[in-house]
Amino acid sequence: MSMIDVSNLSYTYKKGTVKAVNDVSFQIGKGEIFGFLGPSGAGKSTTQAILAGLLSIQSGTISIDGNRRSGSPGKDFFNRIGMGFEIPNVYKKLSGLDNLKFHAQLYDRETMDPMEVLEMVGLAEDADKKAGQYSKGMKQRLGFARSMINNPDIWFLDEPTMGLDPTTANSIKSIIRRRQAEGTTIFLTTHNMFVADELCDQVAFIVDGALVAVDSPKNLKLKFGKPVARVEYLDGGEMKEHEFSMEGQGKAELQQFIGAHDVKTIHSLEPSLEDIFIKLTGRGLE
Amino acid sequence: MKKLGNLLRKDIVLGIKDVFLLLEIVFSVIFMLVLLFLIPEEIRTEGHVYIWDRTGIIEDFVTDYVPDHEQSLGEYFVSNRVDLIAGITDDRNAVGLIINAAGQERYEVEMLSQPYTKESLARFIEADMEDLMNILQPPMGRYPADVYASVRVEAFQRGVDEIQPFNQSLLAPVIVFNIGLIGLFAMVSLIGQERMDATLRAYRLSPSGLGLFLLSKNIVITGVSILNFSILYLPIMGFSGYLEALSVMIVTVIAMSSIGVALATFYQGPLEAIGWVFVLMLLFALPGVSLLNPVFSPGWLQAIPTFHSLFGLDAAMFPDNNADLIWRSVGILALLSAVLVPLTGVLFTSRIQKEA
């Protein structure tokens, strides 16, 4: 059974204007990481805001854990979700620890130990420092920490690694994986294809409010990519390149080529998610 | 209760760290010190009486024995009603008296007063008449003659001049401005900050409702207002009328804060709403003019909530058989709050829920 089931969802900010979300449907299984990829203004944040209950449903349906939502979500739903925002929105005059303590006490379910969460995101040493004195990356981590304080069953994350150094980004990604392993369903909004490729079980491409494709990264690559191998070889003292298709006669041709030339490197040219996105939509993710 | 306590703790800490709560307390201390030590404690308002004495008893006596009565007593004798009315129309600190004989041993006094003439002054004039008439032409009096055999009526008040505790009379406008109107600004500021920093957005995704969010801010603002009120009131007035004035102040703050909620609904931050805050502060300060200068008292002023705050506070501070005015003001402001609090709460909630 899917954890989140979205059917024909549409949303318009002002009547008569273009739909920010246009007839979007998808399912997310329990414990799955679902990546929502699209350029700025594509409708990612609006979809996420509707799912999280910040915006009301105008048309279409949303079912959470088998329960169809009607009207505003209730306390039970908000107890079960967590949301990490792209722009860190923390109380700047409170310490990191007080930010988490305050947020933890808003829930009716058991929450995590704020200090433990700060340790997980590498902020334990700065726990008593005012959040206003944190760097942008630290605020980002604090917001991320806050979003999981209530052990959410459904975790909405908006660009969780944006602006973070590679080491910190890796530790954030490993936390996300760990929580997934514990059964949390994760809705990840990003325009970073590498993060999506690395983390997501399923990705959806959204452009101008409409979904273009929904599938696993692997299937998308198989479906829309062209399997090609690039060979670098020495020819008369000069380094040259040649590409072979990995379908049909291509494999035999490659073998023949390797025997006949001084081949130095062979690379498979698997398409990235961005390549597929560009192929499907005619535009980039940035 | 746990959630409310959590919100209160956060709002108090943020209020203190954002300085404005402390600033408000500092302002209260400064205003209190100014009212106590810089503003004169008493000012004298010279009162006058225009008298048309149709019996001649008072006029003959005063003109014979006090030739400079106009300067020394502030008493002007006129010979008809028209002159009397003209006199008190020109002189806003004057009242008019028409003394008529009613038979041999009786007289009648008709008093023409200003709308703001105090009842105590009317009583004094009444007693003074009785005193003079009974001395000058016994047994001329309003009561049966045998009463005067055993009763001597004497007026002890110094005269129609009024001694006003000036610093105390300024206290009501200061309280309404520093506490009521700042309550409005504080609410705009507290909510605006949460909207600008998007912390309200994070809060909305928790199971604690927006009603609790507003309630916490209202409690903090009301609590700080009670503290500020006490700082201002107690050193100047003592405990006289404290609870009555506090009741007026509390309902004022609640009404003003809910207007602040309405403003915070439409504007992202305190700076965006500053124009409206300024206009409202000017409008709400207007009834203060009427309190200090009663000549300016158009009926529409009563539609401004602070009119009731000011006159309710004034009645609590200077009791003059006007307790009903205090509770009428409390009632009007409580009714207003009972309408505004849920209305602005619903407005705020429904509008905020349309924001992603």
Question: What is the secondary structure topology, with strand pairs?
Answer:
The complex is a heterodimer of chains A (286) and B (356).
Chain A: E1 2-11, E2 21-29, E3 33-37, H1 44-52, E4 59-64, E5 67-68, H2 75-80, E6 81-84, H3 96-104, H4 114-120, H5 136-147, E7 154-158, H6 166-181, E8 185-190, H7 193-199, E9 202-207, E10 210-215, H8 217-224, E11 228-235, E12 238-245, H9 250-260, E13 262-268, H10 273-281
Parallel strand pairs in A: 3-8, 3-9, 6-7, 7-8
Antiparallel strand pairs in A: 1-2, 1-4, 4-5, 9-10, 11-12, 11-13
Helix pairs in contact in A: 8-10
Chain B: H1 2-17, H2 20-38, E1 42-45, E2 48-53, H3 57-65, H4 69-72, E3 75-77, H5 81-90, E4 94-101, E5 107-112, H6 119-136, H7 147-150, E6 162-165, H8 166-169, H9 171-196, H10 199-204, H11 210-237, H12 242-266, H13 274-285, H14 287-292, H15 305-317, H16 323-352
Parallel strand pairs in B: 2-3, 2-4
Antiparallel strand pairs in B: 1-6, 4-5
Task: Briefly summarize what is shown.
Chain A has 286 residues and is α/β, with parallel strands linked by helices. Chain A has ten helices and 13 strands. Chain A has helices at residues 44-52, 75-80, 96-104, 114-120, 136-147, 166-181, 193-199, 217-224, 250-260, 273-281; strands spanning 2-11, 21-29, 33-37, 59-64, 67-68, 81-84, 154-158, 185-190, 202-207, 210-215, 228-235, 238-245, 262-268.
Structure write-up:
The complex is a heterodimer of chains A (286) and B (356). The model of chain A has no long low-confidence stretch (mean pLDDT 90). In chain A, the strands form three sheets. In chain A, strands 6-7-8-3-9-10 form a six-stranded mixed sheet, with helices on both faces. Chain A contains ten helices and 13 strands. Chain A has helices spanning 44-52, 75-80, 96-104, 114-120, 136-147, 166-181, 193-199, 217-224, 250-260, 273-281, and strands at 2-11, 21-29, 33-37, 59-64, 67-68, 81-84, 154-158, 185-190, 202-207, 210-215, 228-235, 238-245, 262-268. Chain A is an alpha/beta fold and 286 residues long. Chain A starts with a strand and ends in a 5-residue tail after the last helix. In chain B, strand 4 (94-101) and strand 5 form a beta hairpin. With 356 residues, chain B is α/β, with parallel strands linked by helices. In chain B, strands 3-2-4-5 form a four-stranded mixed sheet, sandwiched between helices. Chain B has a two-stranded antiparallel ribbon with strand order 1-6. The A-B interface holds A 45-46, 49, 52-56, 72, 75-76, 78-79, 81-83, 85, 87, 89-94, 98, 102-103, 105-108, 143, 146 and B 2-3, 6, 9-10, 13-14, 17-18, 197-199, 201-208, 353-356.
